[in-house]
Amino acid sequence: MRTFLKRAIGDETPTCGAASRRGLKAVGFISLGLLWLLLDVISKQQFADLTPGTRVAAGVLGLMDLRLVHNTGAAWGMFSGSTFLLGVFSVVTCALVFVYFLVDLDRVGALETCGLALVVGGGIGNALDRFLQGYVIDFIEVTFMSFPVFNVADIGVTCGIVLFVLGLLAGRARDARGRDPEDATGLAHTAASGEEAR
What we know:
The protein is mainly α. The protein has helices at 2-45, 83-103, 110-133, 152-197; strands spanning 55-60, 64-71, 136-142.
């Protein structure tokens, strides 16, 4: 009876633990994605009633100006006037990212979860602009280099991609370290078998 109980508990505990980890990842993903979307919406509302080209602040932190731009394309003026199609592309991309997260939920780490959440939050933020207003509100203009004006959503997408890649690299490094002891054990067994054969 005790043996049976031990086996039952041993079989169920990892399952419950895994389910709990999946739940925490899902909650973290949704929470961070919604938080970043909210930050994007609130920041854009501060510029909603201004005329494009208006400079709200200059030399912020010595790094950037706050200047309103209505962007109907992508970065560097690409696909100008294709705002609806770019919005559709953003929605499809966010949907694929979310599906990937759900399918790979057991394996994604914290960095990957945060990265994917930022990508989805930022992508939805810009997609809402494109569908509701016909353009994206950009207002952050760096002054130390030539770079397109961007917004909080863009920061989320860019940082999210970086975090996701870092998470993948960290996961591969962990897997490689985890395989090393097994390889060493296998070599030791092979050597021992060779000695016994002699």
